[in-house]
Amino acid sequence: MRFYLPESQQPSVGSYCKLTGVTAPGGFAALVVASQAIKLGARQFPTPLHPDYAQLLDGSMDCQWVELQGMVSRVAPEERAVHPTVKGGEVSALIVVNSKFKLIEGLSNAFVRVRDCVIPGRNQSRQSTGEV
User: Fold this and answer.
1) Closest CA to 74 of 108, 100, 41
2) From first to last of its 132 residues, what are the pLDDT tens digits of the chain?
3) Staple partner for 86: which of 11, 70, 95, 105, CB 3.0–4.6 Å?
């Protein structure tokens, strides 16, 4: 689920929060329109899953916390993304929060480990595009 909060209540990475709100249908998956977020402190991230490339493509890992390892085949500063090649294909890792993107630009041909939530690519008809 995704949730939307006023800017002043946005949680930081690693925050454990109690949300109050209502569900809404969203574009593909349900979302929570939160009216309040109470920060309960920092917590450890869960142990990541280690899916294979086929699982990434078939949608079964949608919104799951995963860890991937691979060689960065290209860096796309205009997209704020790096594209590691993992066993089976290439994935896109979007850098959402990073004011020092210049550090990431030097990762071309580097072996990296990425932990993130998976979002399979979908078109406007909600069909899989074969992108991760």
Assistant:
1) 108
2) 455 666 666 777 788 888 888 888 877 677 888 888 888 888 888 899 999 998 988 888 888 999 999 999 988 877 778 889 998 899 988 876 655 666 777 888 999 998 988 888 777 777 777 777
3) 70
Can you say whether residue 39 is alpha, beta or left, with left for phi > 0 and alpha for psi between -120 and 50 degrees?
beta
In a domain, 77, yes or no: yes
Are residues 57 and 37 part of one domain? no
Q: Looking at the domain assignment, is residue 84 inside a domain?
A: yes
Work out how many domains the chain is built from and give that number.
2
Asked whether the beta carbons of 109 and 71 are under 8 A apart, the reply is: yes
Provide CB contacts within 8 A for 7, sequence distance 6+. Answer: none
Q: How far is it, in rounded angstroms, from Cα 76 to Cα 104?
A: 10
> Could you tell me if 62 and 92 lie in one domain?
yes
* pLDDT at residue 132, as a whole number: 75
Structural domain containing residue 21: 2-42
Neighbours of 118 (CB within 10 A): 19
Looking at the fold, whether 72 and 112 belong to one and the same domain comes out as yes
